[in-house]
């Protein structure tokens, strides 16, 4: 097992032991020097869950908790769960199941309430929400923003970060201002699948060399991720579990030691209140 001399955190990936590689992906990550994972639950519909109430999301969350426990046993550090409702669910509800946008909003907010119970109990680290990255009607867009604002309220109430899935952009200042208005500090809002720079929230940068070079050259906080989807039907759709350790090795070779410290120690501490160094000695 390679030791890169630093904690190595993948801030956003999925693990699916029933349909995908599951903990085998964790072994690959750890073998190349990876130490910590933030594991986000897969979208509910990909696990066969068609929710009618907030409590119906529980099996989705429990699946994630179980695989996080297994992952932690294999890592030099540990894994944490990030739980929430994928913003694409709004289209499944409205287009496929005949929900009104308002009813879809209410159900998705109830799912977030359920996820927040796990945060409150100390079983999950953060929440996940956002809005569609594709074109939707004004009513669906408004409903999605309502879901996201609710996530910010829950993040403030439970003192946790909120990861966002949103449209591709380098400016989410308005969204960060919404979070602040709900009592959640903007730096605790994380845009997953981000480019190298982002105005407003903290970027979780997709671990491609060009994006990482931009992030490393700046002095701004950032995280690194793969968005590994763990779906054998979609190989190569995003980055594999070995990517973050490989990119950390590359950043160190390029002299970006300070950026590695920022992405894997300082920013995780500021955003999630986790200590990636102390948890290496568990």
Write up what this structure looks like:
The protein is α/β, with parallel strands linked by helices. It has a single domain (9-281), classed as TIM Barrel, CATH 3.20.20. It has helices at 23-31, 58-74, 89-97, 101-120, 138-158, 173-181, 209-217, 243-253, 257-272; strands spanning 9-13, 36-40, 79-84, 126-130, 162-165, 189-194, 202-206, 223-225. α5 (138-158) links the parallel β4 (126-130) and β5. The protein starts with 8 loop residues before the first strand and ends in a 10-residue tail after the last helix.
Summarize the structure.
This protein has 282 residues and is an alpha/beta fold. 43% of the residues lie in helices and 14% in strands.
Radius of gyration over all CA atoms, rounded? 18 Å
Domain tally: 1
Structural class: alpha/beta
Determine and state the CATH class: Alpha Beta
User: Can you give the helix content as a percent range?
Assistant: 40-55%
- Helix count equals 9
Per the CATH scheme, the topology name is: TIM Barrel
Topology order in helix (H) and strand (E) letters: EHEHEHHEHEHEEHEHH
Question: What's the average pLDDT?
Answer: 97
**What proportion of the residues form beta strands (DSSP E)?**
5-15%
CATH superfamily: Metal-dependent hydrolases
Q: Gap between N and C termini, in Å?
A: 17 Å
Task: Give me the CATH architecture, please.
Answer: Alpha-Beta Barrel
Oligomer: single chain
């Amino acid at each position: 097992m390679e030791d890169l001399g630093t904690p190595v955190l993948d801030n956003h990936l999925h693990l699916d032991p029933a349909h995908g590689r599951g903990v085998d992906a964790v072994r690959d990550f750890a073998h190349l020097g990876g130490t910590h994972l933030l594991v986000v639950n897969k979208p509910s519909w990909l696990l066969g869950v068609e929710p009618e109430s907030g409590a119906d999301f529980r099996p989705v969350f429990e699946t994630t908790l179980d695989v996080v426990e297994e992952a932690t046993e294999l890592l030099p550090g540990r894994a944490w769960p990030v739980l929430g409702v994928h913003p694409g669910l709004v289209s499944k509800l409205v287009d496929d199941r005949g929900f009104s946008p308002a009813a879809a909003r209410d159900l998705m907010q109830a799912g977030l309430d359920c996820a927040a119970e796990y945060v409150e109990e100390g079983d999950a680290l953060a929440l996940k929400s956002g809005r569609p990255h594709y074109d939707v009607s004004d009513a669906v867009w408004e409903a999605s923003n309502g879901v996201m604002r609710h996530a910010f309220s829950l993040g403030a109430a439970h003192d946790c970060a909120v990861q966002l899935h949103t449209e591709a952009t380098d400016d989410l200042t308005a969204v960060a201002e919404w979070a602040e208005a709900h009592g959640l500090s903007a730096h605790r809002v994380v845009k997953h699948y981000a480019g190298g720079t982002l105005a407003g929230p903290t970027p979780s940068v997709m671990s491609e060399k060009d994006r990482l070079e931009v992030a490393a050259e700046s002095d701004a906080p950032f995280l690194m991720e793969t968005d590994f989807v763990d779906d054998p039907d979609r190989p190569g759709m995003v980055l594999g579990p070995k990517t973050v350790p490989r990119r950390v090795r590359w950043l160190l070779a390029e002299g970006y030691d300070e950026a590695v410290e920022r992405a894997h120690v300082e920013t995780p501490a500021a955003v999630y209140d986790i200590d990636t160094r102390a948890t290496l000695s568990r």
